[in-house]
Amino acid sequence: MRITGNKPLSGVHSRGGKKKVDGEGVAFQPDPGGDGASAPAVSSSSAIQGMDALLALQEMRLETDQRQVATQRGHTLLDNLEALRAELLGGIVSEDRLASLAKSVEDRVESGDPQVDGVIREIELRVKVELAKLGRFSD
Question: Origin, by domain of life (predicted)?
Answer without folding.
Answer: Bacteria
